């Protein structure tokens, strides 16, 4: 999730754990601790693919963060008497502020390596978009009450708890909404014998959990995309076929960058040749057909013999611009199944 959301979640947790005993500094430190895992973006890895796939790795590991908890709690206890007085609560503040960051990130589709250093695929529960005001605003309101002058501590503390409850209930709803979408997709696939699905993924559309985008990988090597709203009367999802560049991916299957991206995206990626003969890999999980966010140049066509030569280092290419009208179209699609978001220019 975005940094503002992570901070206010940590601040709300800090207030809930120790605010009634230690005052506003509990919320301040909760917010600071909750942003620490994202400092891994400052690490310069070898190339673009490494930067992409190693973000949310060790710094988001439940093992690493749990091991770091007593050290950070000890430092805070050395700084503040009330943190020393309430040692268990301060320990809980640190641990919850840290681990809720990767757990919330896992609710997005990017991919979070919760169990690093185990070589498991990143968790991408894809129940919420990376920015969701319905989740963030209650937390922001609760933390605002904590720092608002004139609000009695007891009342501010209770309002913060209500905000945490509301945001948590919304997050639970997102899992229910995803399950509804998955059921609709399974129903659709039963009536589409032309689709031999090998993998399927449902992803919350921007800024809401009512509209969902689905991506289906087909045995042919192509992929299908469609959109589903929880308000749709017809449970069948209109799926459109797209080329995923299976032949290109097959030629580069032994290339390290290709293997790394395959692992990180769980196969939800496409390959194409650009006008200069470079191989561009696009992540199908974020964006929409024709407007994906992450693109990587990993190979170049040889002028001598036409072979695909892996590039070292890989490069990230500029994403195509999303139409400014997209958010309005998404809003209208929530209520109107006649709007075809597969037809974006």
Characterise this structure:
- This protein is an alpha+beta fold.
- Among the domains are: 3-106 and 136-174, no CATH class; 237-317, no CATH class.
- 47% of the residues lie in helices and 16% in strands.
- It has helices at 3-22, 24-35, 48-54, 62-79, 81-85, 87-106, 133-147, 153-190, 246-251, 256-265, 326-335, and strands at residues 197-204, 211-218, 223-229, 240-242, 269-273, 278-283, 295-301, 308-317.
- A four-stranded antiparallel β-sheet has the order 1-2-3-4. The chain has a four-stranded antiparallel β-sheet with strand order 5-6-7-8.
- Helix 1 runs parallel beside helix 7 (133-147).
Could you give the topology of this structure?
Layout: H1 3-22, H2 24-35, H3 48-54, H4 62-79, H5 81-85, H6 87-106, H7 133-147, H8 153-190, E1 197-204, E2 211-218, E3 223-229, E4 240-242, H9 246-251, H10 256-265, E5 269-273, E6 278-283, E7 295-301, E8 308-317, H11 326-335
Antiparallel strand pairs: 1-2, 2-3, 3-4, 5-6, 6-7, 7-8
Keywords:
alpha+beta; 4-stranded antiparallel sheet; 11 helices
Largest sheet: 4 strands, antiparallel
Low-confidence stretches: none
Shape: globular
Give, in order, the helices and strands.
HHHHHHHHEEEEHHEEEEH
- Work out the number of β strands: 8
Output the radius of gyration. 23 Å
End-to-end Cα distance, whole Å, is: 28 Å
Helix content: 40-55%
**What is the typical, i.e. mean, pLDDT?**
95
Counting helices, strands and paired strands, the structural category is alpha+beta
Number of helices: 11
Main sheet: strand order: 1-2-3-4
> In what range is the share of β-strand residues?
15-25%
């Amino acid at each position: 999730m975005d940094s503002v959301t992570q901070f206010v979640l940590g601040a709300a947790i800090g207030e809930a754990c120790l605010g009634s005993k230690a005052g506003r500094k509990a919320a301040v430190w909760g917010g600071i601790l909750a942003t620490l895992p994202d400092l891994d973006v400052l690490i310069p890895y070898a190339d673009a693919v490494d930067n992409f796939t190693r973000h949310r790795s060790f710094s988001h590991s439940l093992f690493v963060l749990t091991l770091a908890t007593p050290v950070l709690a000890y430092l805070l206890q050395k700084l503040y008497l009330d943190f020393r007085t309430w040692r268990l609560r301060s320990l809980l503040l640190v641990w919850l502020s840290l681990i809720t960051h990767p757990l919330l990130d896992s609710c997005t589709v990017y991919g979070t390596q919760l169990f690093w250093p185990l070589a498991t695929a990143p968790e991408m529960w894809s129940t919420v978009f990376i920015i969701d005001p319905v989740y963030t605003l209650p937390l922001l309101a609760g933390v605002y009450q904590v720092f608002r002058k004139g609000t009695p501590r007891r009342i501010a503390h209770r309002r913060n708890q209500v905000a945490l409850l509301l945001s948590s209930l919304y997050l639970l709803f997102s899992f229910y909404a995803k399950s509804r979408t998955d059921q609709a997709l399974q129903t659709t696939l039963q009536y589409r014998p032309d689709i031999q699905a090998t993998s399927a993924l449902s992803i919350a559309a921007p800024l809401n959990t009512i509209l969902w985008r689905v991506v289906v990988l087909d045995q042919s090597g192509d992929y299908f995309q469609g959109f589903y709203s929880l308000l749709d009367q017809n449970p069948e999802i209109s799926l459109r076929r797209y080329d995923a560049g299976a032949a290109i991916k097959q030629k580069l299957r032994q290339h390290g960058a290709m293997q790394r991206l395959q692992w990180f995206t769980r196969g939800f990626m496409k390959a194409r040749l650009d006008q200069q003969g470079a191989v561009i890999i696009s992540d199908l999980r974020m964006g929409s057909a024709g407007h994906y966010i992450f693109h990587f140049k990993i190979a170049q066509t040889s002028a001598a013999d036409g072979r695909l030569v892996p590039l070292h280092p890989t490069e990230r290419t500029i994403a195509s611009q999303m139409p400014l009208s997209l958010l309005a179209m998404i809003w209208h699609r929530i209520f109107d199944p006649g709007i075809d978001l597969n037809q974006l220019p």
